[in-house]
Design goal:
The chain has 281 residues and is of the alpha+beta class. Helix content is 24%, strand content 33%. The protein has helices spanning 10-42, 48-77, 139-142; strands at residues 2-3, 90-91, 98-101, 124-126, 132-138, 150-155, 158-170, 175-177, 180-190, 203-207, 217-219, 224-226, 229-239, 242-255, 259-264. A hairpin with a 3-residue loop joins strand 14 (242-255) and strand 15 (259-264).
């Protein structure tokens, strides 16, 4: 995604350079001692154990010098000869996806994340094949939904399409907005390959709480409510401009706010005052 040029801190640079110098001095001393011990061992003056100890000290000094040089290179350039392929100067994405935003420009200063700050965001990458709908649900409705429920998504920019989704997350804590308590929900959307979706689209979700098919339903405004009873006015006869209606008790079921399911009391083909009965919901 990007290449970062390391600008070393002078304190760290001086410290790492001093470590290299100390390691070289220490190596020279131990190497001289190793050479003397080697000659003495060849003449049979010292035991094998002393020779092995001297050789181990020499190898440790060599390793310390190499580590000091690598540390100096990392502080100065951001990479070392041993770990060039893992250099932190090359910024790579951890996922396969599309770059959505590059908030920095060439020449901007960036810092790495640590305990005290989040670091600099160099790019925002997203997998556009794994779309998530994020929305808010009112507290009066949150108790009626659960994860795994099917959702219908409608996107304002794509008026001719609706998309299936599955509810995956319901926030355990509500937040107050404009005097209402809302709970965040997330749903995994199923987007066909033929449709191009952009991140950040506004969308509305319709959660299906219950469903009935192949049932008689009537417009909700044609129903008369009286206590626990519901009635409609059914057309009995029609002569010229005069219509005769019969008040009939019905048993209703599900409602979507526009049409209401009629479970009992009406037959397919009958007409009620106001609108014709729909044969399907």
């Amino acid at each position: 995604i990007a290449t970062v040029k390391v600008v070393p801190e002078m304190i760290d640079l001086n410290s790492s350079e001093s470590r290299v110098n100390v390691a070289e001095i220490n190596l020279d001393r131990i190497q001289a001692e190793y050479e003397r011990q080697k000659l003495l061992f060849e003449k049979g003056v010292i035991a094998r154990e002393e020779m092995d100890q001297s050789e181990a000290d020499y190898k440790k000094a060599l390793e310390e010098l190499e580590n000091a040089k690598d540390n100096y290179d990392i502080v100065r350039t951001g990479m070392s000869s041993k770990t060039a392929q893992y250099s932190n100067t090359q910024i790579r994405s951890t996922i396969t996806g599309m770059i959505l935003d590059v908030p920095v420009k060439v020449g901007n200063s960036v810092i790495q994340s640590n305990t005290f700050n989040e670091g600099t965001t160099i790019a925002v990458v997203a997998d556009m094949n794994d779309m998530i709908f994020i929305g808010d649900l009112d507290e009066t409705e949150v108790g009626r939904v659960h994860t795994g429920m099917p959702i219908k998504l409608s996107i304002g920019a794509l008026e001719d399409y609706t998309f299936d989704a599955e509810l995956e997350y319901i926030s355990p804590k509500g937040k107050e907005e404009s005097g209402a308590i809302l709970f965040e929900i997330k749903a995994a959307a199923v987007i066909p390959d033929s449709v191009k979706i952009r991140a950040g689209y506004s969308a509305n979700a319709e959660i299906v709480l219950a469903r009935v098919e192949d049932t008689i339903c009537v417009p909700e405004n044609s129903i008369e409510f009286s206590g626990d009873s519901t009635f409609v006015y059914v057309l009995k006869s029609e002569k010229e401009s005069k219509q005769d209606f019969e008040k009939r008790s019905i048993q209703i079921g599900l409602s979507d706010g526009i049409k209401v399911e009629v479970r009992k009391g009406l037959a397919l083909g009958e007409k009620v005052r106001g609108n014709e009965i729909f044969d399907k919901k």
